[in-house]
Design a protein that fits this description.
The protein is mostly helical. Helices cover 57% and strands 0% of the residues. The protein contains 11 helices and no strands.
């Protein structure tokens, strides 16, 4: 995806990065020009686990992991010791739960100060570099936040802007093409908080094109899939529309 070069709508509050500003200027592009992110949500060739798949071996239950990870996160925000946190996470022996760890850390960071948000990004990058955290887990953790953006917005009013800001290359954490997956409601809320200008215009264009695509999709679902029961026809339209995923 080639993003439209437009001015930033507010000054960066994320120091060198742009996590807090909702960096629409860098990550947004009209819907018609976007492509789906090239990132798997599961670390396997199959679209989802099956009954025949062997379950990951973990040292504790998911609930126990959440409790332990919460305690580690609270200590980390005080010490900001990335090396010690990496060792502690490794010691938990629950790598299959690390998408939840990502969601937990990012959720806590959004409601904290700039320096704490920066050190969380550093930690996540370090975990990925050491293969303790996979790219798919990083994306799943981010998408867990996105799915609950409405509740998060009640606690952190700037959450929509900050979630978009996480996709900036200046943050260096997530692929900016993930912008294509952000919910319409989140982006409408973000647009409502933006001043008039080029950034808001691009986001407004994206939302209009997204709404038009969804309306056309409903028509093709009703005629091609439910009416004619023709999956190939629906697939051909999706390919022609440039939205295969």
């Amino acid at each position: 995806m080639t993003a439209v070069a437009i001015p930033r709508h507010v000054p960066s509050a994320y120091s060198e990065a742009a996590m807090e500003e909702g960096d629409v200027s860098e990550v947004a592009a009209p819907f018609a020009r976007q492509t789906s992110p090239d990132c798997r949500l599961v670390d396997c060739s199959a679209p989802c686990p099956r009954m025949g798949n062997e379950l990951d071996d973990t040292r504790m239950s998911f609930k126990e992991f959440q409790s332990q990870a919460t305690a580690l996160a609270n200590e980390f925000f005080c010490s900001r010791d990335v090396g010690a946190m990496v060792e502690s996470i490794t010691g938990l022996g629950c790598q299959s739960f690390h998408d939840e760890l990502v969601a937990m850390l990012l959720r806590c960071a959004l409601d904290r100060k700039n320096a704490e948000r920066q050190v969380v990004v550093t930690l996540l990058n370090e975990l990925e570099a050491k293969a303790i955290l996979s790219k798919a887990q990083l994306v799943r953790g981010f998408e867990k936040l996105v799915l609950g953006w409405g509740d998060l917005h009640l606690d952190v009013p700037d959450a929509p802007s900050m979630l978009v800001g996480l996709l900036s290359t200046r943050v260096g954490l997530l692929d900016r093409s993930l912008f294509a997956r952000l919910p319409e409601g989140l982006l409408m809320t973000l647009r409502g908080s933006m001043p008039d200008g080029a950034s808001k215009d691009v986001l407004s264009l994206h939302l209009r094109q997204l709404a038009a695509f969804k309306a056309e999709l409903v028509t093709h679902l009703e005629t091609d899939l439910f009416g004619q029961r023709n999956v190939d026809s629906l697939a051909a339209w999706l390919r022609s529309a440039g939205r295969p995923a």
